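Researcher: Next sequence.
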Amino acid sequence: MAARFAAGTARRSSSPRNQYGPEAYKSYKWPFFIRTARACIVVAVMSSVLEHPTLVLSRLWQPVHMTTVRKALCLGYQDVVRFVNPMTCQPLSFDEWLTVPVEEHDPAVRGVRQPIKAPEVALLTDHRPLSFHGPVFSRSNLYKRDRYRCQYCGAQLGARELTIDHVVPRSRAGQTTWVNCVTCCVPCSERKGDRSPVEAGMRLRRTPFQPARSTLHGRDRRGSSKVTRRLAARSCRRTNPAHEVS
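Model: Next structure:
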């Protein structure tokens, strides 16, 4: 009886339940919902870091566009870009970037072996011409391109008296693009209807085109740039102080 009691006490003392400390805490099997919640928190934090913005520079250190950390790391792994060290401003390859130490408050991506610092600036390795996107197609930009004039009758009207006309009607697969849309007044739009300009016997004053961003900046209803009008008014005041340009 005494031997049996001693054997039971030895088993209880050697049981993992009676062992406390860091090792017992790590080996403890947490419930499923707690383990799932911890994994979701790690994934959410990592996803938010991967969506942080990264500035992309050309080989001449000119800003090209913005991208995400996720895409920047993929481009760096493909040796398309190099990451700029914020401390030394030196471009580093992907392998060299892995050796950059991660500070306490730096955004980082959790890697298999070590955390990877989220790059803030990426430098293109190839010399590629900068491709600037044109202006966004909108009603106001279309009116500015056509200088608030109907492209059929030539009348210059206000924005409320104008509309957008599709040269190739939408019923015939006409697209809403710069090269297929023009500014038109309401009477000319009703006259043209669902026909092409040739079928309606109407002639465009000029062929629609995609404008440059600089040509639309600061245009008013008179079709001229505000800066140009300001300079013209200044020159008129110098030559004739009594003359005022409205």
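Model: Confidence is low (pLDDT under 50) at residues 13-28, 32-46, 241-246. The chain has two domains: 47-124, 139-239.
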